[in-house]
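Dear U.,

For the methods section draft, I wanted the exact inputs and outputs in one place so we can describe them consistently. I've listed the two proteins in the order they'll appear in the manuscript figures. Please don't edit the token lines directly; just add comments below if something needs changing.

First protein:
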Amino acid sequence: MSKNKFSPGEKTIIVKEYLAGGTSYVKLGRKYKVDESSIRKWVNNYQAFGEGVFEMNCTNLNYSAKFKKKVVAAYLNGDGSYKDIAIRFKIHAASTVLQWVKQYNNHMELTDSRPKGVVDMVNNKGRKTTYEERIAIVEYCIEHNNNYAETALKYEVSYQQVYSWIKKYQKKGIEALQDRRGKSKS
């Protein structure tokens, strides 16, 4: 029923139309061919975070373990619903709060969202390496419990490169680390 993606400007127009009054989520959903729950979420985010909320990149937000514990404590103290807590602490999705509460209730440790090196692995484009370097990188990674992020950071290569080299090594051994691109098959 819904259009795949709405631009930030389109979302803002729909939200402002709702906030102006005189129409419901259901009517706007029919008018713009979008699920009413999406509009409700947009309105909540707009009210919580303001005008530029739809321009924000919410995928790379980092939350510390301390912050997560504070949020969970607020929920468990009865300070509000998941949605209320998310708005109060400026978290974009109530489901994030729900996830942290479930982790806490299941006696799982609440950890930092992105440990050191994880952000870098996403942005690092990688570099060309020699066969000897790839061997050293694979050995280091295996010695450090397959910590791809740490290895990528240390050797200034991409996370994806380290991951693929480890998988090749595990499947076919050290010879699989040779760069065979452009070589003719025997």
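Second protein (the one for the lower panel):
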Amino acid sequence: MRILEGISLRVNEGELVCLLGGNASGKSTTLKTILGIVRPRSGRVLLDGQDVTNWPVPRRIATGMAIVPENRRLFGQLTVRENLELGAVLRRGKSLVEDFDRVHELFPRLLERPNQLAGTLSGGEQQMVAMGRALMSRPRLLLMDEPSMGLSPALVLQNFQIIKTIHATGVAVLMVEQNATMALSVADRGYVLSTGEIVLEGRAADLLQDENLKRAYLGR
């Protein structure tokens, strides 16, 4: 089945871009294609101008990509620290002290429970681990799939503040999100997908004011 139809998007160095759309619009498939989980039938994926379309996932991660997957996808029977260590598995032999310090600065709660099993954490805490795990690989491009899913309104706000902090360090972010207003409030630019095609794109501030956004977002 063809999910995406001739889409073209970019994330510039240090930029935060959001990808919006309704259910089954192709948002997660786009992220999986960028990361290499899904291979496109045509077209290319470029990283710093280099064609990585045929690269395996580990090579893309080692070169600077990382993902915070939908529903966190933690290893529930491993501890918080072990889940974080897995984020740096391709950096074997290198000191992780600075990386742990960075993650704990962003998520102080994780410093309090390094030996707790990840599967016993609350939804908000699991999201912290998922984001911290991705940062352990020192990504230049961070892919985020529905970071606010299943979180309370207070935690959603906190989560987006942390995303802004990560972005401020120079990490480029491509974020899939159904909360359009919140996503556009922190993004530099945005794209709107409908049934596998980009139907709207532009500066986030402009999209927030666009009368067509709701119709395009809902695929109407």
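Candidate sentences for the figure legend, describing the second protein: Residues 73 and 137 are 16 Å apart (CA to CA). The mean pLDDT is 89.

Thanks,
Y.
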